[in-house]
Write a structure and sequence with these properties.
There is one protein chain. This protein is of the alpha+beta class and 287 residues long. It contains 5 helices and 11 strands; from the N terminus they run E-E-E-E-H-E-E-E-E-E-E-H-H-E-H-H. It has helices spanning 109-114, 194-198, 204-209, 246-251, 259-286, and strands spanning 36-37, 57-64, 67-75, 96-98, 116-121, 124-130, 133-140, 147-156, 164-173, 184-186, 220-223. The strands form 2 sheets. Strands 2-3-9-8-5 form a 5-stranded mixed barrel. The chain has a 3-stranded antiparallel sheet with strand order 6-7-11. A hairpin with a 2-residue loop joins strand 6 and strand 7 (133-140). The radius of gyration is 21 Å and the shape is globular.
Length: 287
């Protein structure tokens, strides 16, 4: 997100439970849609990773005719007018597109009408900057559920080879759930919205209106290692919770954790304070 890396992405075997809710009456009748895995026509490969940067190929859900497809796409929308031969050499930053401008954008508006997609991942990293301290967090859905973000895709045919499928993530102003972390956040989707979101017959204005703000309990987060700041780091432990060092805690009065992680953080801080006080008492006794 915003030049920052994703957390882990799902494997090809992931089954997506998508509500088939195209009916105007708001019916909650749903069916399980199993996407067909398709390799990227251009040969771009998806490699499961805990630290995915822009210009990587990641799994994207989109609709082709009546079939739901899960296919690797290039992260970063390629302008249709880009002459190539390299789809990454256009010089624009297109990893994200702002929800507020998408309806008027020459670059993104065509995809809003005919190229809506769903970005599939386990979470994303965001950095909090406060009091001179930079601390990365992993944001994800509780219970190990897959995280779905609204995206737009296009097919670039400017090169001499096969067409390149590429995408961007829609972002919006954060609400109170994540505004403490960053003023921008991805636009999220729920499985029951997939049918209408991916349906090209859904008007763009109606599609954008579906992107509701997250509510309390729908997202979780915890602090992670600063090693996520270098995409060359690909360890399997990058997404695991790592407590901030005490020097950073002293500089920063408040370390944010979700309710799921709050107990662990509280016990750790109490233990650290107790150990420090115990050491001071021992030093005085020795003196």
């Amino acid at each position: 997100l915003g030049g920052k890396a994703f957390g882990g992405t799902t494997g090809q075997e992931e089954v997506v439970e998508a509500g088939d809710n195209a009916e105007e009456d708001g019916s909650d009748t749903s069916s399980t849609l199993v996407p067909v895995w398709t390799e990227a026509p251009c040969g771009g490969q998806y490699f499961p990773s805990t630290n995915i940067p822009p210009t990587s190929y990641t799994p994207i859900l989109y609709k082709s005719s009546d079939q739901l497809v899960l296919q690797p796409m290039l992260w970063g929308l390629v302008p249709s007018w880009h002459a190539g031969p390299d789809p990454k050499s256009h010089g624009l930053t297109t990893n994200n597109c702002r929800l507020e401008n998408v309806m008027t954008s020459k670059l993104y508006k065509p995809s809003l009408a005919k190229g809506r997609c769903v970005v599939v991942c386990e979470g994303f990293y965001e950095w909090e900057r406060s009091g001179g301290v930079k601390q990365p967090y992993l944001v994800y859905r509780p219970g190990g559920e897959v995280l779905y973000m609204a995206g737009l895709y296009s097919v670039w045919r400017g090169g001499e080879g096969a067409p390149v499928y590429n995408y961007t993530i829609i972002t919006r102003e954060s609400n109170n759930i994540l505004s403490w972390l960053h003023h921008r956040m991805p636009a999220f989707l729920s499985p029951h919205q997939f049918s209408a979101w991916l349906n090209p017959l859904t008007p763009p204005t109606k599609a954008l209106a579906m992107l509701a703000l997250p509510k309390e309990g729908e997202l979780a987060w915890h602090t992670v290692s600063k090693e996520v700041g270098n995409v060359r780091n690909q360890g399997m432990d990058l997404m695991k919770q790592v407590e901030p060092c005490m020097d950073d805690v002293k500089k920063k009065k408040d370390v944010k954790v979700s309710s799921a992680s709050k107990g662990i953080m509280s016990n750790w801080l109490k233990r650290s304070i107790t150990e420090k006080e115990g050491g001071e008492k021992k030093m005085k006794s020795n003196m």
